[in-house]
Design goal:
The protein is 38% helix and 15% strand. By secondary structure, the chain is of the alpha/beta class. The strands form 2 sheets. Strands 1, 2, 5, 6, 7, 8, 9, 10 and 11 form a 9-stranded mixed sheet that branches. Helix 1 packs antiparallel against helix 3, helix 1 packs parallel to helix 12 and helix 2 runs antiparallel to helix 3. The radius of gyration is 22 Å and the shape is globular.
């Protein structure tokens, strides 16, 4: 009898609607959080957006989000889902278990085994264990500062991403990383920097597993060490008045009270890496409200009585961006533990992808959410998991 874990297939490619843009929307942005193996959820989100005919103008990511974003920006629309499948099926190709019953307890054990295989052998096309032990390697040696070698990821990126298209194509790309020496957060933006595989790898170089990535004279680690969401970069660099933003979070800020040590470790990781979406959104909403007030005050003053700085401020306030943010948050399964972000089994990958696909389809059914209205409120935030459907 075959007792292996059943693996649902990835969603079949459905019909693709003609490209369209919601009412009042100038730009559609996709914001992708870090989260390792959970990143397949983002691929499912993108597939649903693609089939709905919503064409992304800006895609920004941190860590695994930066990798998914590079595959999206570095391919023409008709090949993006195919390339995402290629990446995710490739890095989860290793068989995990032949004899596991399909129950929460057995699945938790199978996932633990899968995570152990990852820590022992790495993942094909992504990372591999270093030959030397970091604890006994000479100071300064490559083997002294990380447990894994990410050379396979560079080869995968070169195969799946057209970097010429990423740098010159219609989709703006940005990936977040942190400078190892000064601790400052940095964004590699295709409108400002020629993006190379190293920029993408730097965004996902989470220590101590992965080594820092050298770019020029600087070294960078995973941007999630400082902020796991690139939402602030997208809002700070808005090149339009009205944006529709799909923010994809892989760790939920909200959760339940832990009941065992597995729950404690999983909840700790959720809190540590959950997106600061609401904090950033509240900040920009308050900033917008202050701007509206100052704009009204300046309108009461004759232009010829304004100095150069005040006229410049008035011009900027006339072009304050408005944004509707649709938040999609991965919801952890009962059998998942704190290892969920490095548990790379094909079965889990398929589940994550399917969840992202279905959550996005549910979100898009709320047609009123897609309208970016021109109001003094400036920002609106919607979350499919906070409403009844």
């Amino acid at each position: 009898m075959d007792t292996s874990i059943p693996s649902r297939p990835l969603p079949a490619d459905g019909p693709v609607r003609k490209s369209w843009r919601p009412p009042g929307c100038d730009t559609i942005a996709l914001v992708l959080q870090g989260g390792g193996a959970l990143g397949a959820y983002q691929a499912g989100v993108y597939q649903a957006l693609h089939e709905a005919g919503l064409r992304i103008d800006t895609v920004a990511g941190v860590s695994i989000g930066g990798i998914n974003a590079a595959i999206i920006a570095g391919n023409p629309p008709e090949r993006r889902v195919e390339r995402l499948r290629d990446f995710w099926e490739g890095i989860t190709a290793r068989p995990v278990s032949l004899f596991s019953l399909d129950s929460d307890i057995a699945r938790k054990a199978t996932n633990a085994w899968s995570a152990l295989l990852t820590t022992t052998f790495g993942q094909p096309g992504f990372f591999k264990p270093r030959a030397g032990n970091p604890w006994i390697s000479p100071r300064g040696a490559k083997t002294a500062t990380s447990f894994y070698d990410t050379t396979p990821l560079r080869e995968t990126l070169l195969r799946l991403v057209d970097f010429d298209l990423l740098n010159s194509g219609p989709v703006r790309y940005a990936a977040g990383a942190v400078n190892v020496l000064n601790g400052n957060f940095a964004y590699f933006d295709s409108t400002q920097t020629k993006i190379l595989p190293e920029h993408v790898m730097a965004s996902g170089a989470l220590p101590p597993a992965f080594p820092p990535v050298q770019i020029g004279t600087d070294f960078y680690w995973d941007g999630g060490l400082v902020s796991n969401t690139p939402l602030q970069h997208v809002l700070d660099n808005a090149a339009c008045l009205h944006m529709l933003i799909f923010q994809v979070d892989l760790f939920s800020a909200r959760g339940v009270l832990p009941r065992d040590m597995d729950d404690v470790l999983a909840r700790q990781k959720d809190i540590q890496f959950s997106s600061r979406t609401r904090l950033v959104t509240d900040y920009y909403r308050e900033k917008h409200e202050r701007g509206v007030l100052v704009k009204k005050l300046l309108a009461k003053v004759p232009v010829d009585q304004l100095d150069a700085d005040e006229r410049s401020l008035k011009t900027r306030l006339d072009h304050m961006p408005e944004a509707t943010i649709l938040e999609l948050i991965y919801q952890q399964a009962a059998y998942e533990t704190q290892a969920k972000d490095y548990e790379f089994s094909a079965a889990s990958m398929h589940e994550h992808w399917n969840s992202g696909f279905l959550d996005t389809q549910r979100t898009l059914r709320h047609k009123d959410w897609l309208t970016v209205s021109e109001t003094d409120a400036g920002f609106s935030l919607h979350d499919i998991h906070r409403v009844d459907d």
